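Long-time lurker. I teach an intro course on protein structure, and each term I like to show students one example going from raw sequence to a predicted 3D structure in token notation. This year I'd like something fresh instead of my usual example. Would anyone be willing to generate the tokens for the chain below so I can use it in lecture? Attribution to the forum is fine with me.
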Amino acid sequence: MKKLIVSVLATSIVCAGITYSEPLLHSSTASQPHSVAYAASSSGNFKDVKGHWAEATIAKAYAMGLVQGYQDGTFRPNAKVTRAEYASLLTRATKLGSGTGGSSFKDMKGHWAENAVTRLSALGFINNSDYSNGFKPNTELTRLEMMKWMSNGLVQSNISFKQAFEDTQNTLLPTPEATKGKIAKAQIPYLALVRGTGIVGGFADGSLRPEEPTTRAEVAAILLRYIDVEGQEASKYADLNEMREVGTTGTNLLTISNYKYVNGNISNIMNTDITLTNKSGLVQLHHFIVIDARENKLKSVYSNLFIDSEKQRTDFEKDVFLTFTELSFTSNLNPAISNLQMYNNGWDNAFLRFHRINNLEYASKNGISTIPTDSSKLIKKGVKVKFWNQSFLESTNSNQYASADKKKYVTFTNKN
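-- Reply from a regular --
Happy to contribute to a lecture. Here you go:
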């Protein structure tokens, strides 16, 4: 009997922190869940979460039966979460079916979380191919894994998320890690779904930090949001709609502004040659991002990527739609005789301009290359360079037109 008690306590300590539905060893209490081990915190008033940013969230997650605490009455909100622990939580949070036919990993045989992992595999949350060397259940969960599993769940929960996943394959993520080239292309749609639905909001600097581990507090908050989104229509999420439009056309113009297309769309002139009319250079557009600046509060999932909300906007940045254009440019002119005005004279439209982003320091911090004060340091004859420009669209009564080589063009308007 003494040996059995010691074994039970050891199991409780190893698996502490999360309520699991798996039984406690083989004893008279074998049918009881691990929550038996957490009587000390049965009220949910954990002594180490008072004043924590996730205090209310943890209390709610506890009340819903998603999480539990430790025997000493703590929750340990900043403790890291393992793959096995997260699998157990996520399988409890999802409203999808029981899941059958899932492939179990060899290193999960007899593990307390085997059933949870097998179920998530069957439901499509976990791609077994991602763990070809074993699931390694005690490995700390990365934020990328957390986001990927939830995105897979959304895709399985409603066909509209499957389409959203496809639409965001080539989108621009509203995070400095994307503009710095730190997010692999294959990761983009997974991050887009959870960022676009608000399941994951990112850190204060806009970063998503996919390679970092995640904490118990973060998981509690994110799972509650996931529960609200699972099974919904993807089109109800404005931020996701922006990223879907950017992913399919290169711009969020229709989603964020009052403009509508008259002929063609901006994708007609994306990633194709545009020879400036005065032969001063060759342009290729890659992204045309629009931010609604008609009111004090900027409107766009991309606003914090380009504009420092802590700084006062200039008069030229008010009551308009601000635009940020990513392009590649090859100059035909020698730097000694060229200037931005000469290049601007070569545009056949009014909304695409060679104009550096106003806040150079903020742009640089977010990995956004723009024209420096001395443009000759970036733009050189015969050298193809990629950078971002800033301009604007009138908020009312405006017609816009732009063309590219090979008779490609677009017209759009916000006139009634």
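Some talking points for your students: The radius of gyration is 26 Å. The chain has three domains: 1-77, 78-249, 250-413.
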